[in-house]
């Protein structure tokens, strides 16, 4: 099928208009062919180590490390803790598999980019191509392996501080990364292992590198921008021309898919650290500053069977919020000798433990309002990481008598996997398509599950960390949208109307990795293979990703005048004014009926209490 030539030669247009014109031409042809945007490998080109820069035989699978680093007779050793982490199983993750299929359906070669983080050994093996991952082998499935991480080189060389060997590694690259992010990693082509300590007794060559103590190393994969969508000088994200590398490798200029590293980098934790009183850090935990302080907590133990015992051995749990994903990995690989079921259970427990450290709850009653404060105790937004599906919300239950539930805000139906979002506050990030992107892709404008095509942030009311600043976070692609936080605010206050006649309240902060809506979108949108259905089946069999409790509190409710919105002790004209000012809004404090919106039902209840 042929297309008419464009009326205007795109190469004669100014850069911004040229980009749009080329995309319109190419996307029009693509939509006729089936809806994919025909990006190329060049669109996802990154500096750093490329396919062909090193050979597979220079890298070892992680089970080769087990003999020395996993048999120390303590549960804190590197291999044992790593083997139950999502890092170890990133190449086996059924959620990632289903997501990569839909990304490839929307944007050709997207899978090549996805695999750089999730299956990074596919670069040394060359199996990141083809981008559907069909050439991957068990070596690739080793995930973010021991040798991969410990062969990493800091791309930002500092003479006199960086290992001298790094200079030659960087000089041999065609292009050295200027930024941490987007999986623009650098590997030692000889596979020489690096670590944070001097290890003279090692059975293999080692190089001491402070890179392993820095959050910058984690930023390599935990800041992700869409390489195909760039923010212009006017602050608007737009699709790039097809067949060309991103015009700027700075992740901050690209449409945000993940900003965990940036959220930490701009927080108070990276500006001298925060004394968390032992909440994080493991043995001797106090001041928290780096990613490693929280996600590799310290323990007493040996790193190697013949090495010394350290008082500050860094555990390799890499615990985050991945409990459910680890659960479905265990279910998907019940008989795989590479998948240690016992370690996966330990990894799930570590993830739940980390979730329960990430936030705290406090509350106060003021007349007929019960205000709950959710405080972010972590070094990044909560929830953070992958933007699709993850959410936290408040469940508030008011009781009369001993056991009678009078009202519930944020009810979650376990059987239907459905959250009553109208009656509570849900902290999450949603992305969408602009009218321009809709016209180019054929998908409706507005909120979307097609993350690879999204070019607008619809919502991001996730709670920021200590040190939050609106201007700097927005400039870095991590703004607060549909949620208002003052500079320095790392908490959220939500007020709920207290029903008449109650005496007790219970509050739970819940976390969920994926929603029913998102799982069904991955299933129904997959027209390539069965990965979406396989994920859906695991979701059903695992309890439909039941919410995990992050924090709870309960308290007594003291007497108050029902309908007294201004807290002056009586129901009158000023209360009516407060209600009318909130009319039609999801104002939980003025919502006397508890149905999620201020309307006639609330007015009737107020008038019945009028004095």
Molecular structure report:
- With 611 residues, this protein is α+β, with helices and mostly antiparallel strands.
- Among the domains are: 354-556, no CATH class; 573-608, no CATH class.
- The chain is built from 19 helices and 21 strands.
- It has helices at 15-33, 63-69, 78-82, 94-106, 110-118, 122-125, 146-150, 165-171, 215-222, 260-265, 291-295, 323-332, 341-357, 435-441, 470-475, 516-524, 531-541, 573-581, 600-608, and strands at 193-195, 206-208, 224-231, 237-239, 254-258, 274-275, 287-288, 298-302, 309-314, 359-366, 369-376, 391-400, 404-409, 412-413, 418-419, 426-433, 446-447, 456-460, 491-497, 504-512, 548-556.
- Helix 4 packs antiparallel against helix 17 and helix 12 (323-332) runs antiparallel to helix 13 (341-357).
- The longest helix has 19 residues, at 15-33.
SSE diagram, text form:
Elements lengths: L14 H19 L29 H7 L8 H5 L11 H13 L3 H9 L3 H4 L20 H5 L14 H7 L21 E3 L10 E3 L6 H8 L1 E8 L5 E3 L14 E5 L1 H6 L8 E2 L11 E2 L2 H5 L2 E5 L6 E6 L8 H10 L8 H17 L1 E8 L2 E8 L14 E10 L3 E6 L2 E2 L4 E2 L6 E8 L1 H7 L4 E2 L8 E5 L9 H6 L15 E7 L6 E9 L3 H9 L6 H11 L6 E9 L16 H9 L18 H9 L3
Parallel strand pairs: 1-2
Antiparallel strand pairs: 3-4, 3-5, 6-7, 8-9, 10-11, 11-19, 12-13, 12-16, 12-20, 14-15, 16-17, 16-18, 20-21
Helix pairs in contact: 4-5, 4-17, 12-13, 16-17
Question: What is the average per-residue confidence, as pLDDT, rounded to a whole number?
Answer: 92
Morphology call = globular
Please state the structural category: alpha+beta
Instruction: For the record, give the distance between the C-alpha atoms at the N and C termini, rounded to a whole number.
Output: 76 Å
Helix content: 25-40%
Largest sheet: 7 strands, antiparallel
> In angstroms, what is the radius of gyration?
26 Å
Please report the total strand number as a whole number. 21
């Amino acid at each position: 099928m042929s297309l008419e030539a464009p009326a205007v030669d795109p190469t004669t247009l100014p850069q911004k208009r040229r980009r749009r014109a080329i995309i319109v031409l190419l996307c029009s042809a693509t939509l006729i062919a089936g809806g994919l945007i025909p990006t190329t490998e060049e669109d996802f080109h990154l500096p750093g180590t490329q396919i062909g820069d090193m050979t597979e035989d220079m890298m070892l699978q992680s089970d080769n490390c087990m003999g020395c680093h996993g048999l120390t007779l303590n549960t804190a050793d590197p291999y044992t803790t790593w083997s139950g982490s999502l890092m170890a199983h990133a190449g086996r993750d059924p959620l990632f598999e289903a997501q990569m299929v839909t990304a490839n359906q929307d944007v050709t070669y997207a899978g090549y980019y996805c695999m750089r983080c999730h299956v990074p050994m596919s670069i040394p093996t060359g199996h990141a191509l083809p981008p559907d991952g069909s050439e991957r082998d068990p070596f690739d499935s080793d995930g973010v392996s021991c040798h991969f991480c410990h062969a990493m080189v800091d791309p930002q060389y500092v003479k006199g501080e960086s290992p001298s060997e790094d200079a030659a590694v960087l000089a041999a690259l065609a292009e050295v990364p200027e930024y941490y992010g987007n999986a623009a990693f650098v590997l030692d082509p000889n596979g020489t292992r690096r670590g944070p300590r001097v290890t003279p007794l090692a059975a293999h060559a080692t190089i001491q590198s402070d890179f392993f103590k820095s959050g910058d190393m984690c930023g390599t994969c935990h800041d992700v921008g869409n390489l195909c969508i760039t923010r212009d000088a006017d602050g608007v994200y737009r699709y790039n021309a097809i067949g060309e590398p991103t015009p700027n490798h700075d992740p901050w200029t690209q449409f945000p898919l993940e900003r965990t590293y940036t959220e930490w980098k701009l927080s108070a934790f990276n500006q001298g650290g925060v004394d968390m009183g032992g909440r994080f850090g493991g043995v001797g935990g106090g001041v928290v500053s780096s990613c490693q302080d929280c996600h590799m907590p310290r323990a007493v133990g040996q790193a190697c069977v013949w090495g010394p015992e350290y008082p500050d051995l860094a555990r390799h749990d890499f615990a985050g919020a991945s409990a459910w994903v680890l659960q479905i990995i265990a279910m998907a690989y019940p008989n795989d000798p590479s998948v240690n079921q016992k370690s996966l259970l330990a990894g799930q427990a570590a993830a739940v433990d980390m979730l329960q450290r990430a936030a705290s709850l406090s509350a106060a009653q003021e007349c007929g309002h019960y205000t709950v404060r959710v405080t972010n105790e972590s070094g990044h937004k909560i929830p953070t990481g992958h933007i699709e599906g993850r959410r936290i919300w408040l469940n508030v239950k008011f009781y009369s008598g001993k056991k009678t539930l009078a009202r519930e805000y944020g009810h979650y139906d376990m059987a239907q996997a459905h959250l009553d979002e109208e009656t509570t506050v849900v902290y999450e990030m949603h992305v969408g398509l602009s009218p321009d992107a809709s016209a180019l892709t054929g998908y409706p404008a507005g909120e979307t599950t097609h993350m690879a095509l999204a070019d607008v942030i619809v919502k991001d009311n996730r709670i920021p960390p200590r040190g939050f600043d609106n201007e700097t976070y927005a400039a870095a692609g991590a703004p607060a949208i549909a949620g208002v936080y003052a500079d320095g605010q790392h908490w959220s206050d939500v007020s709920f109307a207290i029903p008449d006649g109650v005496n007790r309240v219970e509050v739970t902060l819940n976390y969920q990795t994926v929603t029913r809506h998102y799982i069904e979108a991955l299933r129904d949108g997959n027209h390539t293979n069965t990965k979406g259905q396989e994920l859906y089946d695991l979701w059903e069999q695992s309890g439909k990703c039941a919410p995990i409790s992050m924090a709870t509190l309960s308290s007594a409710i003291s007497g108050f005048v029902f309908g007294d919105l201004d807290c002056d002790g009586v129901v009158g004209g000023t209360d009516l004014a407060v209600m009318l000012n909130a009319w039609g809004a999801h104002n939980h404090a003025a919502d006397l009926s508890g149905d999620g919106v201020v309307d006639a039902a609330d007015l009737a209840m107020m008038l019945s209490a009028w004095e």
